[in-house]
Amino acid sequence: MGLLKKVDHVTYAVAKGMIEKWTWFHVEVEGGTLINRIDDVRPDDPDSSMKIWCIDYGDFGVALVEGIDRNKVSQVTRFVEKHGDHACQHVAYDCHSLEKFQDHLKKFSARPRGETLVRNDGFGILKQMFAKGYSEGDAAEASFPEYVERPRGKALEEVNITFSKQAGKGFYQQIEDARESGDTEPFIDFSKMPAGWQVPEAKPKGQ
Fold first, then answer.
1. What is the CATH number of the domain that holds 42?
2. Is 60 in contact with 91 (CB distance < 8 Å)?
3. CA dist 180 to 168, 183, 199, Å?
4. What was the pLDDT predicted at 2?
5. CA atoms 97, 129, 44, 33: torsion sign
6. Which comes out higher in pLDDT, residue 165 or 109?
7. Contact 49/74 with Cβ under 8 angstroms?
8. For the whole prediction, is pTM greater than 0.85?
9. DSSP conformation letters of the chain
């Protein structure tokens, strides 16, 4: 059994004024359902914030984030300026066990963005870990993975993809902290890759 179970959600950063249009696309064209709309995750922050709107497809979700610029340019705005409108900022993967996966990552000196976040999203405790960017550089401009563990043993209708203002604040703050501290290191250090590592033979699914 692999360490990751499935894709939990995909987060796209969108340009100013585009969140409504992309919500229309994901709802009307792709058939998703808008389940959460947070128009300002940090309303008391004089510097910057973001919107986060969430679409559910049953077994996975899509989150749209749009920057709110006040005294400073939002990290989401910076990401869009670097990568373009509706660019994939991060993919969240549901783990069989987040703790076991984190222990596994230590073997490769992989670097999380910050502490594991734990919150109650209405039906149980959800654990989240945001990682540093895939490439070295400005934390606001890097794409990155997120790893989560959702509660098990619930009825299917109770475990739809959910998002919260606290989740949005969490990774927003972690990236802001990285920018302020000048932390530009990447998630994975490829020097840990064995020099003689060979690409394994492809194994068709089911064999």
1. 3.10.180.10
2. no
3. 18, 8, 39
4. 86
5. negative
6. 109
7. yes
8. yes
9. --SEEEEEEEEEEE-TT-HHHHHHIIIIIT--EEEEEES-S-TT-SSEEEEEEEEE-SS-EEEEEEEEESSS--HHHHHHHHH-TTEEEEEEEEES-HHHHHHHHHTTT--BSSSPEEEE-SSSEEEEEEBPPSSSS-TTT--EEEEEE--SS--GGG------HHHHHHHHHHHHHHHHHT----S--GGGS-TT--PPPP--TT-
The answer to the question of residue 16 being in a domain is yes
Amino acid at 8: D
Q: Of the candidates 10, 38, 1, 9, which has an alpha carbon nearest to the alpha carbon of residue 150?
A: 9
Number of domains in the chain: 1
Q: What is the pLDDT of residue 162?
A: 57
What's the full length of the chain, in residues? 207
Pairing of strands 87-95, 61-69: unpaired
Q: Which of 99-108, 113-122, 183-192 has the lowest mean pLDDT?
A: 113-122
List, for residues 37-68, the tens digit of each pLDDT value: 999 999 999 999 999 999 989 888 999 999 99
pLDDT at residue 35 tops 80: yes
Residue 115: inside a domain = yes
Q: Domain for residue 196, yes or no?
A: no
Q: What is the pLDDT of residue 120?
A: 62
Asked whether residue 171 is domain-assigned, the answer is yes
Domain that holds residue 121: 4-188
- Higher-pLDDT residue of 46, 125: 46
